Amino acid sequence: MFDSMIELKNYKLIILKSLIVTVIGFIAVSLLLIFLSRDLPSLEQLENYDPDLVTRIYSSDGKVLNELFVQKRVFIELEKIPIHMQNAIIASEDRRFYSHWGLSMRSVARAILINTLSMSYRQGFSTLTQQLARNLYKSIGFEDSIFRKIKEVITAVQIERTYTKDEILEMYLNTIHFGHGTYGVEAATKRFFAKSSTELSIDESALLVGLLPSPANYSPINYPEISIRRRNTILRLMRDQKFIDRLEYEASRSRNLESIQGEVKRGMAPYFTEYVRRTLETLDEELEINIYRDGLKIYTTLDSKLQSIAERAVMRSVKEDQVRLNNRLYSESSREEFEKLAYLTIYSEDTLKMMLDGKLELYKELRDKLLVQCAFVALDPKTGGILAMVGGRPDYHDQYNRAVQAKRQPGSVFKPFVYTTALDNGYPVTEQLLNQPVVLNIQNMDGTWVKWKPQNYDGSTGGLTTLREGLRKSMNLISVRMVQQDIAPAEQVKQTAKRMGINTEIRAVDALALGTSEVYPIEIVSAYAALANKGVYSKPFGITKIEDRYGNIIKEFFPDRKEVLSEETSYLMTSLMQTVMDRGTGGSARWKYKFNRPAAGKTGTTQGWSDAWFVGYTPQIAAGCWYGVDDFRVPLGPGQDGSKAALPAWARFMKSAHDTLEMPLEKFEKPDLIKKKEICGVTKKKPLPACPIEKEIYKVGTEPTQNCNIHRTY
């Protein structure tokens, strides 16, 4: 009896201890689960899953120009993903996906057995849902540990309770990492096969799925043989699980990797898209957007066809100008300059010549001294929309966009501001000035002042010269006299330029008549565009609309216009620059490059041949280009003026652009207050019967009132 009581007491004690251990174990497990769950996603986070998506930049004609992203991911609905891609995932990653509740106990048991027998970690037991949990939520982590697995399971169960199986599969296919910076099946398909995932074949689907365990090691680009073996393994699994039949298996297995895209094509218009990206970054806070994560659609003004034309035209001139520069540097007369620029004590002459000739890549530290660079901008004069932009050599793309970031002396392309000011002040195009030497006071970099006697390009002088003739021949002496004689005072010229869109600092000195103040290419083109648009300036812009991932408009952008000149002044100035095109320094655009539409333009060359420009327009397009070396101390060389180094690219672009877009032939519209008058061809006064007659246009009120005084008849 006593022994029985003792046994009963011991039994109760064992039960009590077991209960205590169980309770303590339960509490410990609960506390562990609470501890591990503290940084796991909440139910709200699970229900409102919002993945990072690629932002795309589109041209005005619907082409994808570039993409912005942290993780390259493009969302696609499950129903659009081929069923064989879905089956490949199931066959490889989780064959019991549609039957488990987030954790496969069979897989767990198998993993425990294999790992125990091998005394190592050889078999995992992650379901597709567990992988999704790990991919979606950073708080779970990727380290191999029991704690991570517990976190995975907890989150996976919650995901299974929150979403349907198809929704889970859709999220998985849109988030999984396939390597080479791609996340999700759509981004991966575009990267490897240059097409949409809707077009995937069975073998292509199997190849993508084969990457998942180790995208870096199974890359079809870096390790094609390994990738094929992995693909075939997935195909065999699909066959064994009856997702494909024997014939489909054999056909898919026999295919090679010819469809793989090795190199990703650089996005179109890289300088323009970088310009757009910088613009967007200034709007992040205002619009509460993240351009790298929100999957936005950015619609732009750029025309992809015109961009391609611009890049071809610019590159052709770059090559031509580079050959001329190379020949100059190779000559005996430039030997000292070449040695200094090329650091021949460091690099061999043969190597450098091969680099300059394009046979070897030019060392980065030499590019700013030895490469001909360029900038090109084309605008819609009526809106200011950027139609095409090239910010540097297409073959040496860098982050420096010379179209919007490089300040260079404009030379003679600045002269139209001087002439515009004179016309605005009421002077007629027949106003005559003496084409004789002048003296300017110029301030050096060190602050000292020196006297400078500018010359005309050809060194010529002469007698009285009209404004039209002065601009036609780009006579420096006439431009300077206009400023010095207060026909176009320096301060007024400065204000005219600023009014027309030049925002860089302009020094109101006599030398500004020759374009000594630096400008940005896009500013000078937009100023000329105001002349094309009847005196209405349209601020350049590149973005028309921003949409969110659902197609909702976040912000629209509209032309920003203001009248800066009268229609009459604009027309007169346009007429002067038409003369430049038809009979002046821009004439080769007509006779050599066959661009015969109504157009106005101006060449520009700076002292020492450092900069070559051509800027011009039709009623439909305003465009301008600059050529030079980044280091302004390195000249293009004698004879490399605006008409030779820059005009060819402009002319080729303008002809091809108008023809490609089939633009109608459009003339510059003459205002009612502009009248054509007969004048004496010598004195430019009212003609008498004995006068040689010519016709000229005037703004009403500025036409000659005095009779000719040298062709009188008695």
Task: Characterise the protein shown here.
- With 714 residues, the chain is of the alpha+beta class.
- Among the domains are: 1-38; 72-253, Penicillin binding protein transpeptidase fold (Orthogonal Bundle); 672-714, no CATH class.
- The protein is built from 26 helices and 21 strands.
- Strands 2-1-6-14-15 form a 5-stranded mixed beta sheet, with helices on one face. A 5-stranded antiparallel beta sheet has the order 8-7-19-18-17, with helices on both faces. A 3-stranded mixed beta sheet has the order 3-5-4, with helices on one face.
- Helix 10 (224-240) runs antiparallel to helix 11.
- The protein is elongated and about 150 Å long.
- The relative contact order is 0.09.
- The model is unreliable at 28-38, 119-124 and 139-146 (pLDDT under 50).
CATH structural fold name of the domain at 72-253: Penicillin binding protein transpeptidase fold
CATH class wording of the domain at 72-253: Mainly Alpha
Query: What is the overall pLDDT average?
Result: 87
Helix tally equals 26
The strands making up the biggest β-sheet line up spatially as 2-1-6-14-15
Computed Rg? 37 Å
Structural classification:
alpha+beta
Q: Compute the separation of the termini in Å.
A: 166 Å
What share of the residues does DSSP label as strand, in percent? Answer: 5-15%
Sheet with most strands = 5 strands, mixed
Q: What coarse outline follows from CA principal-axis ratios?
A: elongated
- Low-pLDDT parts are 28-38, 119-124, 139-146
- CATH level-four homologous superfamily name of the domain at 72-253: Biosynthetic peptidoglycan transglycosylase-like
